[in-house]
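Deliverable D5.2: sample structural annotation.
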Amino acid sequence: MRFNKLFVLVLVLLLVLVGAACGKKGEEAENEQPATETETEGGEVSSEITFPELDRTDLGADKVVATYEGGEVKGDEFAQYLSVQGFFQPSYPINDPEFRKQAIEFLIAEKTILSLTTDEHSEAAQENVNMMWEQLELRYDEATRERGFDTLQITEEDIKAFLSRYFTTEAYFKSQITEEQVVSSYNEMIPDLTTASVRHILVATQEMQPDGTRKDIRTEEEAKQRADELYQQLQGGADFAELATEHTDDPGSKESGGLYADAPVGQWVPEFKQAALEQELNKIGQPVKTDFGYHIIRVESREVEELAEVREYLTGRLAEERLMNYFQNELPGKIKEIHL
């Protein structure tokens, strides 16, 4: 799997909320709880997750905390929603007023989207709910889960219901994604879906100093002349790995004879990335200029993940974009009042 679904879930649901949590640089959130250390019987020290306690003042069943087009949110429902957020991410400031304001907007978004879903969307969600619960069991052992349930006054059923609602809304947006959109997204992401084994020699114009600054070691003209000379040696039959070990200015590949094996192409600077994507395999290309200097490159292998391998990821990514678009552009017109 290309990503950890649990953390993608938390990211999507709380993307806006993170901004509130991190609003004061250098300061800890009001109720952020650090992990504590406990000693096991064997003498080992392990981290123990400390869940936040939710302040339920004014979050009773008789209190309407928000109204929106088509319904309302009662205090106890919102309290459960906040508690679930605290369960997934114990560091979130679930008692912070700004966090709560944005959390209730997400809850209203969820409720308004669910009003558009069908039984087919709910059925499509169930497999993901089961998978997510299994991952959650790996993240939190049973004792941790029970402690979280007790502290936050929720149950396993509350967590699963939350996951079901989320994946039902995801299924709704996924059902709107067309094959043409998936293929277009795939084509755009090909550089990020490509790995390559590339051997290169860098003739640098600057050298990194211990203090993090850069020192000029050659002019651009000198670097180009040296790169051309090395290129001619390679064209004449010189061993690439030996020449790289002896002459490259790239410390990251010097000991491997200039080789970066099975590396993600998307991590490299544009000019180097273009060569890795387009240069003919096992052919030594003309020196390529980047901000680092001149590179002599030989692409030894290149592999792109097939559409079938990443279809689910791409569809989910497009669905998440639609969810965020709904939150930012459609939801504001549906909210009537928030009373927090």
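Annotation notes: Residues 52 and 116 are 33 Å apart (CA to CA). Residues 193-304 form a domain with the Chitinase A; domain 3 fold (CATH 3.10.50.40).
The annotation will be released with the project's public dataset once the embargo ends.
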